[in-house]
Amino acid sequence: MAEAASELGPTTPYGKTLIKVAEAEKRLGAAERDFIHTASINFLTPLRTFLEGDWKMISKERRLLHNRRLDLDACKARLKKAKAAEAKATTVPDFQETRPRNYILSASASALWTDEVDKAEQELRVAQTEFDRQAEVTRLLLEGISSTHVNHLRCLHEFVESQTTYYAQCYRHMLDLQKQLGRFPGTFVGTTEPASPPLSSTSPTTAAATMPGGPSVASLAPPGEAALCLEEVAPPASGTRKARVLYDYEAADSSELALLADELITVYSLPGMDPDWLIGERGNKKGKVPVTYLELLS
């Protein structure tokens, strides 16, 4: 936009407008960079550090705890099976035959299962110890998440606040730009001279022919022309409307009417008036108001 303004002529109305918009876009870009930088430092970096560091360690320890529980369950199942086999070998010896060999074999089987039970109990004690140790480690890590959550919650609040600030800055920049553009004439021409001679230099006959039946609006000409005599401006017999103000507006001079968002005012247009402006009345005060700041009601 700035380059185009230089090519087309920075002194022309279009070139001036391009420069104004380019400056506003630069301010928007600077606000966006500040927001990205703030969000990265206050929220994204701490969150990424937590996910890639502490949370990865916690996930690893939880998986290890799960494996320890599986080992413990397997040891319990093995012990249960060994005890069942030992009980069967002890309580049901083979005495159907009278040969001593069968009794000796039954006694040997019972002794083997007793050794198997002792071994299974030892393995169960080891597995239980490892499971309890891993459960304690995991518990301590998970308890530390509470304080971590408080810190990340604060970071999240700061992120929301920075984003709110960013959008508020963008809104203010665009509102300022809108005010500046609202003061430009509605029709641009390729010269910096006034589009028409000041109405003050126009003869009464010509003015009357141009604005039949309407009040004097010499004051409604672009900057550089005659000043507005608000006392001489009267609303037309018909054509007044109610309008709701969309944004706050600060009057640039005494010919304009300052506005507050959401208030209701009476507006009307006068013959020969810039289409981007209306006359607004609020109580005993009146002045020019930009159309872009209004929502016209029925």
Q: β content, as a range?
A: 5-15%
Rounded average pLDDT: 77
Distance, first to last CA: 39 Å
Poorly predicted residue ranges: 185-227
Shape: rod-shaped
Strand-pairing-aware structural class:
alpha+beta
Which terms summarize this structure?
59% helix; 298 residues; rod-shaped; single chain; five-stranded antiparallel β-sheet; alpha+beta
Can you walk through the features of this model?
There is one protein chain. The chain has 298 residues and is α+β, with helices and mostly antiparallel strands. It is 59% helix and 8% strand. The protein has helices at residues 2-8, 13-52, 54-91, 100-182, 204-210; strands at residues 241-245, 264-268, 277-282, 285-290, 294-296. The protein has a five-stranded antiparallel sheet with strand order 4-3-2-1-5, with no helix packed on it. Strand 2 and strand 3 form a beta hairpin. Helix 1 (2-8) runs antiparallel to helix 2 (13-52) and helix 2 packs parallel to helix 3 (54-91).
The gist of it:
The protein is α+β, with helices and mostly antiparallel strands and 298 residues long.
Write the layout of secondary structure elements.
Layout: H1 2-8, H2 13-52, H3 54-91, H4 100-182, H5 204-210, E1 241-245, E2 264-268, E3 277-282, E4 285-290, E5 294-296
